[in-house]
Amino acid sequence: MIVVTGAAGFIASCLVSRLNQDNFNDIVMVDNFSVAKKEDNLKGKKIKEYVDRENFFEWLDEHYEDVEFIFHLGARTDTTEFNKDVFDLLNLNYSKQMWNACAEYQIPLVYASSAATYGSGTLGYDDNEATIPLLKPLNPYGESKNDFDIWALQQTAKPFFWAGLKFFNVYGPNEYHKGKMASVIFHAYHQVKERGSMKLFRSHNPEYADGEQMRDFVYVKDVVDVCMFLMHHRKNSGIYNLGSGQARTFMALALNTFESMGVEPNIDFMDTPENLRANYQYFTEANMSKLRSIGYDKPFYTLEEGVKDYVQNYLMEGKYY
Prior knowledge:
Layout: E1 2-5, H1 10-21, E2 27-31, E3 49-52, H2 56-63, E4 69-72, H3 84-105, E5 109-114, H4 140-154, E6 162-167, E7 169-171, H5 184-195, E8 198-201, E9 214-215, E10 217-219, H6 220-233, E11 238-242, E12 248-249, H7 250-261, E13 267-270, H8 274-277, H9 289-293, H10 303-315
Parallel strand pairs: 1-2, 1-4, 2-3, 4-5, 5-6, 6-11, 7-10, 8-13
Antiparallel strand pairs: 9-12
Helix pairs in contact: 1-6, 3-4, 5-7, 7-10
InterPro entries: Epimerase_deHydtase, Heptose_epim, NAD(P)-bd_dom_sf
Organism: Pontibacter flavimaris
Enzyme class: isomerase
């Protein structure tokens, strides 16, 4: 059996579909299934069992001999949430419990970290584990992810294989339920569909023109392909960046969304909310050499390719992955 936590969420539900494509059908989906807004992400999946996240470790104590691999992708991901207790509970302490269980039962583990750990990027975006304790995230979400990375690197008891993945700006199908935390592409599509125009945040940094803020946008299909690679690879444990390796502007993202929809560009700018300005990242770009060095050689979707596939094959069709 393969366990996927956060299984009804965005990335994890795409991973379950990808596992099914490769005929892995004994999937144990772990989540808070009382959240009905995610139910469409579960449709059509080949699943062995659903386990509520609060009951998972009792379940694992009984079934660990049958578990081949765990993808721990469940987390609280709201970067505008400032209640540290929420992140300590769901992102830090639950992940520690997961790690300890995988170490005890020697189950290989891939878990979700985040590019939010890099903060303003003053130390760069290299997944060098020696610099991880020096990083200064800009919000409690990033702090919770970095705190766990630091803790994991300090442990002497480890799963026989483990990898932490620093997800950059992931976009793609199955994020319909994420509301304000969905990708800019998702929001842009719906704005253009409703009124023929879209809004981007104005730059409040003199080094960047409006719309020229840059992010490493990575398509979710690439993310799940990397997860599959690591499941089969099972060596070279450590923490890895997972982005496209190429920073692109929000303007490029917006223009590609319009083009994929067949609509003439019409872009307005609005002020970045004041509560976000101090912690706003103007540039992110994953150094992907570490993952490449262990044998992952598949090319990543370009922004043009990813936006077109997402918009035309999912958003316009109302489909899930």
